[in-house]
Design a protein that fits this description.
The chain is α+β, with helices and mostly antiparallel strands. The chain is built from 20 helices and 29 strands. InterPro entries: 6-hairpin_glycosidase_sf (IPR008928), 6hp_glycosidase-like_sf (IPR012341), Gal_mutarotase_sf_dom (IPR011013), GH65_N (IPR037018), Glyco_hydro_65_C (IPR005194), Glyco_hydro_65_M (IPR005195), Glyco_hydro_65_N (IPR005196), Malt_Pase/Glycosyl_Hdrlase (IPR017045).
Length: 761
Amino acid sequence: MPAGPVHYPGTYAAGCYNRLLSTVAGRSVENEDMVNLPNWLPLRYRICPADAAPGPWLSPDHPYLTEHRQTLDLRHGTLTRWSVYEDETGRRLTVEQCRLVHMGEPHLAALRTCFACDGWTGAVEVESGIDGAVRNAGVARYRGLADQHLTGWETGAEQPDTVWLSCRTLDSDIRLALAARTRAPGGHNGVARPQLTALRAFHTLVLPLAPDSPAVVDKTVALYTSRDPAIESPRHTAVDAVALAPHFRQLRAAHRRAWENLWRQAKLEVPGESGRILRLHLFHVLQTLSPHTSELDVGVPARGLHGEAYRGHVFWDELFVLPFLNLHLPQVSRALLDYRYRRLPAACHAAREAGRTGAMYPWQSAGDGREETQQLHLNPRSGRWLPDHSRLQHHVGSAVAYNVWQYGQASGDTEFLHSRGAEMLLEIARFWASAADWDAALGRYRIRGVVGPDEYHDGYPDAAEPGVDDNAYTNVMAAWVLMRALDLCRTLPEPHQRQLFEQLQLAPEEPERWEDIAHRLHVPYHRGVISQFAGYGELAELDWHGYRQRYGDIRRLDRILEAEGDTVNRYQASKQADVLMLGYLFAPSELAAVFRRLGYPLDEDTWHATVDYYLHRTSHGSTLSALVHAWVLARVHRPDAWTYCEEALTGDVADVQGGTTAEGIHLGAMAGTLDFVQRGMTGLETREQALWLDPAPLRELSKFGVRIRYRRHWDIDLRIRAEQVRIAVPASENAAVRVNLRDRSFSLAPGTSRRLDLPGD
């Protein structure tokens, strides 16, 4: 189908970005987007009766359509569409089409289309090709901006069955090419006629058709870009790839084997409807972040490779993705961390430009590591373009550091942790140390002028400058980063430490300052709970009931208030979990230990009161919010956890955000639901060279199994059944796995298993 109000074909390649200038509200604004590449899907057809002129071109939108269904086979990664058309004279045409994007050969995709007729004899005419007349038009609110990213189109034909199209991106100058081979197997090749224009390359085939003689058309496509290694040119490589590609059945068989192997590595067994949704989430995650990702210089786009929302940018969503990948595809996790490492110089440059030291990672990343956050954003309710201060979310650096540390703990990859990982962690610690100012009156260090994960509050009411002070999440995470940096300094082998300190020009007094700040960063409180930021408790209370009565869905409360001429900065209202993110990242004992080092007690009553306080002041304007609340409530108030877990599961399935899923699925939320089962309900941690378990299964998810990869052990099987936990370590030559289940500790030798009753709450 062509792009329109209902359909939007999109083709995206990981890491393929381009930058354009637009005029917004009288200002010149630059945006870098993940580019919608030429469309490889076009394949239309029409009935050519022996006794009449050809009919109209058919598609699932045509009035002749009488039956239609489509099936997504998650296990084997294929989409099958089945359609029946009937014209005014009763001629029926049945079309079955199977689509795949090859998981084994990442440059290949294929379509097989089968035609069968009923009530007539003649032929079917098929037009198959590549369409280069595409734009980035998948997000309605971006449509006033520049969207033509491609230029320099060329088209051509090779052999009797292959056409190609090449072009390049306007600014980033990425050269790309697609080649399409269209064949009719079984000796019914018809007459292939290439049709070439400046922007399109097509083949037309006319195939005989009779009630007892169906026709089949196979379309095989290759896509290459100049970012791909070991190629002469994208065009020549794409043409050669389709020439050498096997026929559809072989392609499909190899594709199925690749998916089956991938499902084994990421096995997750959850019964019922929840299990079906989780498998759909896992399918989407693996499409974007497969083992092929380990060979690429790419990050984690917030919407995956599934749409153009957020322009394909990389935010902090890897914080919700890597913990799952660490225990299944650690090589992919390392590649995603390498993406951050290659952009470390840009982060250090950004810190210097801001008058800081160390590394200040951007809130939004894309191609080269500079800050990609737009300076203006559109409120669709008011139609006004407003200043965007979300670039002040410097906590993204802490997310990078957290992922470095957690990857090292889960994988045992000390080579990475002591080299690239250490460089990133120490430079991020440096940034936080330079951002912390001493307040003599308070007797504490403070971090001012930031935006927290909440995102609603980008400043104080009527303040001249943006940002808030002492965001609790930001400060606690900064302290944690400093603590981990100090741990790393102490555990690095002495020659390696000396070399690294010389390379980074790290002065001996810097770690001493880190130690002081890590113990004395300010965390604000009010009315016995942790404050989201300094002064949060002094803001006005919102009439939540009144706004829900007036507007119904108030997830984007910030837009509602701005359209009314008000601002969410005046109220105790959060878009998504902020303080509660701490309970998502850290087990209760670890979080309490961080607060103790800061000199603050965090007992169970204080944390429970904090959770309850923000539970009633959050609008859940992000799909990540329900996930975090479910995770935290599973430990604090289990009966309420399922409500949020269910919302997190159905976020994209039911499009709970009201239209955002069409712009691209929410990859972080999808991966987070998988990790909710894997780590949230098992209490699984990887630290101190052991697996730690503290199960807290929900009644609705009380029976499940996961298979994880921990260091050198593949396929450790972990199952929760009723009030028991079973863990099995596969046979190998590796050392035993140390396991801690709450207050019990034991070792499991390879080839053994153990079943234990869960302690009562």
